[in-house]
Amino acid sequence: MLTYKTQLTIITTNYNILTLKLNKLDNYDMKILGILTINCRTPVRQIGKKVSLSGVSVKSRISKMERAGVIQNFTMKVEPPSLGYSIIYLIVPGDDEADIVKKLKLIGEPFFVVPCLGDITACGIVVEKDVEQKTELVKNLINNARIILTLDPKESEFRADLTKTDFKILEQLLKNPREKIDSISKSTKLSAKTVTRAIEKFEANPAIQFTIIYDPRKLEKFVAFALLAMVQSDIKKIKAEIETSFGDYFWQVPFTAKELLVLFMYSDNIYNADVMRHKIKEIDGVVFTEVFFPKKITMPTNWISNSIKNAALSQKLHVSIKQINT
């Protein structure tokens, strides 16, 4: 008969083996994560068809990644200019997230805060009106902050055009972006047809995204990175050229604004990521590239919640931008 100590050793060993298997990611997992970052409401059967797995297997893998902490939470991303806000993109020296967020809140609302390798933090700040004045405030409050881009609603292609009903559904989806239509209908007291139409409207709009927050540190043998490229010619043409060569490594829809192109990608190691950067840098029209390797990703939605509250005060069904960000 096995002693208690031996039994405990066997249990511990089996647990460690199970944990190792649980946390081990493969190319299927990375493809699933890529689909979820683009639209986390994608049905598991549909994901399965895209990655050549059964829906049951996809569901199991998603659950595995949630338990392992690879997928931290499901969330919604809304581009601030689509709701009438300006945004400031910047790089801040240091990675003291709490201190950085404290300073960002003196300027506006944090859009994202991403500490990266190299003791730097990539940030986005949602601001109301007078973006130039807020940019000067950034320079005064945050030493050596590097402004990458400022964007106001007039300069952006993003548009939301949401109704009070849309905002009501958006409020519910912020709590759980993957919530079933029947459940949303019950919570909002709106018909399933109305909810379905709103979700289809959101999914068709590039300004609104159902996505995930993942932990870059738990990707194991894979490396997530953002590649920033400044271009001086046709940005759509350059994006298409990059997508042709490197589309298999895209992890999200590329972001474009003015002369800025941001690619969200992954690789099997940091060296191949650098090789991709060099090849993209050689493309005609690309004048500068820079790579950021995230250590942690935070994407607050407080500013969206505030917009929803303001929209609820509107006397009209179609909510004007002025009503949203007052």
Compact summary:
With 326 residues, the protein is an alpha+beta fold. It has helices at 4-23, 27-38, 44-51, 55-67, 97-104, 131-141, 164-175, 181-188, 192-204, 235-246, 270-281, 302-312, 321-324, and strands spanning 71-78, 86-93, 109-116, 120-127, 146-151, 208-214, 223-231, 255-257, 260-267, 286-292. The chain has four domains: 4-68, Winged helix-like DNA-binding domain superfamily/Winged helix DNA-binding domain (Arc Repressor Mutant, subunit A, Orthogonal Bundle); 81-157, ACT domain (Alpha-Beta Plaits), CATH 3.30.70; 164-208 and 315-324, Orthogonal Bundle (Arc Repressor Mutant, subunit A), CATH 1.10.10; 216-292, ACT-like. Chain A, domain 2 (Alpha-Beta Plaits), CATH 3.30.70.
Properties at a glance:
single chain; 326 residues; alpha+beta; Arc Repressor Mutant, subunit A; Alpha-Beta Plaits; four-stranded antiparallel β-sheet; 10 strands; 22% strand; globular
Describe the structure.
- This protein is of the alpha+beta class.
- It folds into four domains: 4-68, Winged helix-like DNA-binding domain superfamily/Winged helix DNA-binding domain (Arc Repressor Mutant, subunit A, Orthogonal Bundle); 81-157, 2-Layer Sandwich (Alpha-Beta Plaits); 164-208 and 315-324, Arc Repressor Mutant, subunit A (Orthogonal Bundle), CATH 1.10.10; 216-292, ACT-like. Chain A, domain 2 (Alpha-Beta Plaits), CATH 3.30.70.1150.
- 44% of the residues lie in helices and 22% in strands.
- The protein contains 13 helices and ten strands.
- The protein has helices at 4-23, 27-38, 44-51, 55-67, 97-104, 131-141, 164-175, 181-188, 192-204, 235-246, 270-281, 302-312, 321-324, and strands spanning 71-78, 86-93, 109-116, 120-127, 146-151, 208-214, 223-231, 255-257, 260-267, 286-292.
- The protein has a four-stranded antiparallel β-sheet, with helices on one face.
- The longest helix is centred in the N-terminal third of the chain and has 20 residues, at 4-23.
- The chain starts with a helix and ends with a helix.
- Mean pLDDT is 90; it is low at 7-20.
